[in-house]
Amino acid sequence: MRVIAGKYRGRKLKSPPSIQTRPTSDRLRETLFNILAPRIDGRRFLDLCAGTGAVGIEALSRGALHVTFVDQSRKMCALIETNLNSLDVAESEYQIVPGDALGYLRRHVKKGAQPFHNVFFDPPYATDYEVLLNFAGDQVTQILDAEGIVIVEHHKKKLLADQFQTLTCYRELTQGDSVLGFYRVA
Questions:
Q1: Cys-Cys crosslink for 109: which of 7, 68, 142, 144, Cβ 3.0 to 4.6 Å?
Q2: What are the pLDDT digits (tens) for 168-179?
Q3: What are phi and psi of 23, to 5 degrees?
Q4: Distance, CA of 60 to CA of 67 (rounded, Å)
Q5: What is the pTM of this model?
Q6: Strands, E, within 1-126: which ranges?
Q7: Could you tell me the pLDDT band of residue 19, with boundaries at 50, 70 and 90?
Q8: Quick check: 154 and 125 in contact, CB under 8 A?
Q9: What are the domain boundaries of the chain?
C-alpha cells in the first residue's frame, strides 16, 4: 500500500496484520481522489472506519487542512498513528479517535463541533450502513459543511438506498467488487 499523490506521494504505508481489515485498494483510492481533487485542499476530512488510515492520509497528502480518523479497533488506531508518524505528519493536522462510527457522530453532534467538508465511510461489508447514513442525513447540518459530501464504499452486491433523510446519492462508481456512493444534501 502506498500514497498515490501529493506531498507524500510514493511513500509506503504499513498494512494490517490480518485479513479482517479490508483496506481501500490503491486503484480505488486513486479514482476516489481524482473525483474529489477540487474538494480536498484546505478542507476538513472525516475517515470513518479508517482501518489503516490510507484514505485520510491520501487526503492529507493532497492538502486537506485536517483529518479525523475513527476506528473501533485500538490496533488499527495504533497502525494509523504509525503510518502518520512514518510520514512526519504534524499532530495539528489530524486526530485519531478510537470508537465506533455512529458513536463518534453522535458525540460530534452533541458537542456542536465544526462540520466536515468530506466524510468517507468504509465499514466492514457486514455492517448496517443504513443506521449511520440515516443519522447523518438527519443531522446533516451538524456533520457536513453546506457543500459537503458523504462518500460510502460498499460491496457491489449490497444495494443502498438513493436517499437517507436529507442525503441523496448523486453518483455511483463501481470498480471491481467495490462501489463508491456519493451523497449530498438533497
A1: 142
A2: 999 999 999 999
A3: -65, 145
A4: 7
A5: 0.94
A6: 44-48, 66-71, 94-98, 116-121
A7: low
A8: yes
A9: 39-185
The values of phi and psi at residue 104, to 5°, are: -60, -45
Q: Which 3-state string (H, E, C) describes 7-32?
A: CCCCCECCCCCCCCCCCCCHHHHHHH
Q: What gap in Å lies between CA 151 and CA 170, rounded to an integer?
A: 10
- Per DSSP, the three-state class of 142 is helix
CATH code linked to domain 39-185: 3.40.50.150
Tell me how far the alpha carbon of residue 66 is from its chain's centroid: 12
User: What is the grid cell recorded at 121?
Assistant: 465511510
Placement of cell 436517499 in the chain: 163
Map grid coordinates 490480518 to a residue.
Answer: 18
Q: If you ran DSSP here, which 8-state letter would residue 2 be given?
A: B
